[in-house]
Amino acid sequence: MSGIEAREPEDLRRIRESVRALCAEFPDSYWRSVDREDAYPEAFVRALSESGFLAALIPEDYGGSGLTLSEARVILEEIHRRGGNGAACHAQMYTMGSLLRHGSEAQKQRWLPAIASGELRLQAFGVTEPGSGTDTLGLRTTARREGERYIVNGQKVWTSRAEQSDLMLLLARTTPKEEVKKRSEGLSLFLVDMREARGNGLTIRKIEAMINHSTTEVFFDNLPVPAENLIGEEGKGFRYILDGMNAERILIASECIGDGDWFIERARDYANERVVFDRPIGQNQGIQFPIARAYAQVRAAELMVRQAAAIFDSGEPCGEQANMAKLLASEASWAAADTCLQTHGGYGFAREYDIERKFRETRLYQIAPISTNLILSYIGEHVLGMPRSY
Ligand SMILES: Cc1cc2nc3c(=O)[nH]c(=O)nc-3n(C[C@H](O)[C@H](O)[C@H](O)COP(=O)(O)OP(=O)(O)OC[C@H]3O[C@@H](n4cnc5c(N)ncnc54)[C@H](O)[C@@H]3O)c2cc1C
Predict the structure, then answer these.
(1) Which of 92, 93, 123, 128 to mutate to test the pocket of ligand 1 (most atoms within 8 A of CB)?
(2) From 140, 158, 375, 388, mutation site for ligand 1 pocket: most ligand atoms within 8 A of C-beta
(3) Do 368 and 259 belong together in one domain?
(4) The domain that contains 346 carries what CATH number?
């Protein structure tokens, strides 16, 4: 459907085709059933791990495929375009970035090959807390050094896939706010081995949510974490997670592009097939134009995603483009979702059409991993030079 895709270089097309073949094993009925049962799509995640797709961004020296972000984004885009949901495991692709960039060589040797092979799942990222929300620097979970270990106390919320993960990347305060010069200092990043932690100071409670996302609340009660699991230097954790966020935003934006195309294809096909008043509903401009407009929005957002990924791969700063890609792609996928539902009339609400499921799923991207307002405030302040609004 996409004109851009038709002109894609051979290597991207090859990735797209092999993801498409894998996704063919997991049709709509599979996603509908895991959604209805609120179950983790274990078989899909296993297949994706075994195919090496989740290790796309891990360098070959550590057992991964060493792909660029421009290549890796195609994987998530294609999963969503085929009706699947990469959110079940996308964190395995990018959460390891902090370990890769800031971990010691010993930590990388210890963890990355096992993450690359899928033997260990690093899919949980514990940042958000009930008391601080978007204001990450206000987080209250503490890690207190005691000899060769840290003792963690506090709570996280919306920690997705904690029950399915072997490892969690955890952001906690190691120096009280009152004792640091800047609020962004004194936070540290840890790799928590959930296999040892569960029942030993870590409790996980599932959150019943609007979508099937395996998201949880996590409680820390004097959880010991070996000091050797501290990533980089103590007190610099916030900076470490910030520089992983551009990759996350670009990959999530790619999922939105895939969703957008899925919705448009479904809307187009239904508009062509469904006959009311003796003619296909797609003959009415009231049905046709919103689909055409949503298509144009998705294509425009896709250009921004591709540009952001290319700048990321060049090593140049890409905060502006990564944020705009996430903003535009999440709004484009939502416009496509709304149009698709409207095109389907009452049948859009029937589970067997899958529209309502994808509609719920794609709405998330305007909230998480970062909400639209915070992206707009980033553009206002850091790109346009207006006063900080919070
Ligand atoms: C399904 C799901 C999965 C998630 N997975 C994870 C995960 O794995 N790990 C993790 O750490 N977090 C996760 N999150 C949390 C997510 O990142 C947060 O929900 C999100 O960042 C917003 O935080 P909040 O919900 O506390 O909203 P709040 O901070 O309470 O904000 C509420 C609303 O107010 C707006 N707002 C707040 N302050 C301002 C301001 N100054 N200016 C303008 N608007 C403002 C926000 O944009 C938002 O729309 C997940 C969330 C969901 C729903």
Answers:
(1) 128
(2) 158
(3) yes
(4) 1.20.140.10
CB of 366 shorter than 6 A to ligand 1: no
**C-alpha dist (Å) from residue 192 to 187, 227, 230:** 15, 11, 9
Residue 162 is assigned to a structural domain of this protein: yes
Kindly report the CATH number assigned to the domain that includes residue 225.
2.40.110.10
Per residue of the chain (390 residues), give pLDDT as tens.
655 566 789 999 999 999 999 999 999 999 999 999 999 999 999 999 999 999 999 999 999 999 999 999 999 999 999 999 999 999 999 999 999 999 999 999 999 999 999 999 999 999 999 999 999 999 999 999 999 999 999 999 999 999 999 999 999 999 999 999 999 999 999 999 999 999 999 999 999 999 999 999 999 999 999 999 999 999 999 999 997 899 999 999 999 999 999 999 999 999 999 999 999 999 999 999 999 999 999 999 999 999 999 999 999 999 999 999 999 999 999 999 999 999 999 999 999 999 999 999 999 999 999 999 999 999 999 999 999 998
Ligand 1 midpoint to CA 118 (Å) = 29
Do 176 and 229 lie in one domain? The reply is yes
* Residue 36, both tokens: 């209805």
Centroid of chain to Cα 29: 23
Q: Judge if the beta carbon of residue 358 lies within 6 A of ligand 1.
A: no
213 lines ligand 1 (CB under 6 A): yes
Does 138 lie in the same domain as 99? no
